Amino acid sequence: MAILDVEKVIGDFEAMTKDAENVQRETLKLILEENGCAEYLQNLGLNGRTDPESFKACVPLVTHKDLEPYIQRIADGSFPLILTGNQ
């Protein structure tokens, strides 16, 4: 069994979180690239844009209730790229 090197774990964590803002921007960009074709994002007018500013301008903060019609369509068997870019 390996011995945990606490200092290494802390150092690795600090290195990974040092540039959290850019990591989050890149993660959002990847999510939007993969899901830009989803009906939900198309209806909001994102139109394939992957930058955080466009996301903030086009995509409102929503609740489960707001997404319920989309979720229900998926539950009913409709799978054509409703909420994600994957079927």
From TrEMBL:
Entries under InterPro entries matching the protein: GH3
Domain of life: Eukaryota
GO cellular component, as recorded: cytoplasm
Signal peptide: none
Gene Ontology molecular function terms on file: acid-amino acid ligase activity
Pfam family, any one: GH3
Alphabetized PANTHER family for the sequence: GH3 DOMAIN-CONTAINING PROTEIN, JASMONOYL--L-AMINO ACID SYNTHETASE JAR1
Protein name, per record: F-box/FBD/LRR-repeat protein
